[in-house]
Amino acid sequence: MNKKILVTGATGFIGSSLVRKLAATPDEVYILVRKSSDLTSLSDVIDKVHLVYGDITDRASVESAMKGIDLVYHSAGLTYMGDKKNELLYKINVDGTRNILESALAAGVKRVVHVSSITAIGIAFDKKPVSESVIWNFHSISLEYARTKHLSELEVAKAVKKGLDCVIVNPAFVFGAGDINFNAGRIIKDIYNRRLPFYPLGGICVVDVEIVAETIMTAMQKGKTGERYILGGENVSYKQLADTISRITGAPKVLFPLPFWMAKILRALLDLYKNKNRISKLFNMSMFRVASEFLYFDSSKAIRELNMKVETHEHSIRNAYEWYRERNMLV
Predict the structure, then answer these.
(1) Is a pLDDT exceeding 70 seen at residue 197?
(2) pLDDT tens-digit readout, 224-239
(3) How far apart are CA 104 and CA 62, in angstroms?
(4) What pLDDT shows up at residue 196?
(5) Does 45 map to a domain?
(6) Does 225 reside within a domain?
(7) End-to-end distance of the chain based on CA atoms, in angstroms?
(8) Domain with 142 in it: what CATH number?
(9) Which domain holds residue 118?
């Protein structure tokens, strides 16, 4: 029997890829969107889904959206690396998640998949990839986004105790086709346009958006209640990542390593400089602080239990670059 599925965050990078896959199934797909939402990322499937107007921070609209729903994919959230939106981060990522979980429980929803983040897992301080069982250690870096993603998982734990069937997935750094807002793709654009003359000394775990969306759907079918699954791929240093982007895009290599202490001095000097637009927006201190650490992850649990595919980081970078190039978005 066909199920009624509700997706939050459907206009985002991961959410839109997920909706596209769900729209190809016989299930009825409902997406929770604000009246002001830009639906561009869903233009090819908008006629195959039902729009439900509301906002995860508005409890009444969430309760109304949950009526008659069987399954919920909660991928809405605010991703912001800085300290100027702390209240909004908390309101969306923590209060919004609580609204979704409590409303789902009250409406008798059969299962929820909560799309979290690897910042809710932790940092690999010794470069050894960490697994789902690590104790959250991101508090050593002051990043409100990471704190709110951690707190949203604590909300999931509370809801599970109350009887909600919920599974958590933690996507790593997601590249690939469809990243219209240049989330991870910003680094591709900036290296291509020679706006990133240096690279940070840390590293990241790269995964393709198609793999993430597929595995999120598998988590709905096979994930264990209350468990979390890291959805990652290859662990690469920023130097390796920059070299791969240069090779694929034909841009010059990024040659200069930049330690965090030096980045702070350089940032202060750049703030005095009139033409700031020539340097990447990625060069803010919160982001650079995180990029100076190793966010390396062990995805073997998702490979084992959710049949997650594995691709090279080059595969994802190429997918993203080709998609941007076809649409002339790198200028």
Answers:
(1) yes
(2) 999 999 999 999 999 9
(3) 9
(4) 86
(5) yes
(6) yes
(7) 47
(8) 3.40.50.720
(9) 4-175+207-232
Give the tokens for residue 94.
């923590």
Q: Which of these, 154, 147, 183, lies nearest to 320 by C-alpha position?
A: 183
Structure confidence by residue, pLDDT tens digits, 92-135 = 999 999 999 999 999 999 999 999 999 999 999 989 999 999 99
**CA 296/CA 145 separation, integer angstroms:** 18
- Lookup result for tokens 């990471």: 146
What share of the chain has pLDDT > 70, as a percent? Answer: 95
Instruction: Quote the tokens at residue 56.
Output: 């995860």
Q: Are 243 and 272 in contact (CB under 8 A)?
A: no
CA nearest to 290, candidates 80, 87, 13, 33: 80
Residue 281 lies in a domain: no
Residue at 159: amino acid letter: A
Comparing CA positions, the residue from 106, 112, 75 lying closest to residue 92 is: 75
**Strands 234-237, 203-208: parallel, antiparallel or unpaired by DSSP?**
antiparallel
Domain count, the chain: 1
Q: How far apart are CA 23 and CA 39, in angstroms?
A: 15
The first and second tokens of residue 288, run together, are 């650079």
CA distances from 64 to 73, 159, 277 (A): 16, 19, 44
Gap between the Cα atoms of 67 and 207, Å rounded: 34
Q: Grade residue 275 by pLDDT with cuts at 50, 70 and 90.
A: low
In a domain, 264, yes or no: no
Sheet order of strands, 234-237 included: 173-175, 203-208, 234-237
207 has a pLDDT exceeding 70: yes
Predicted confidence band of residue 289 (pLDDT cuts 50, 70, 90): confident
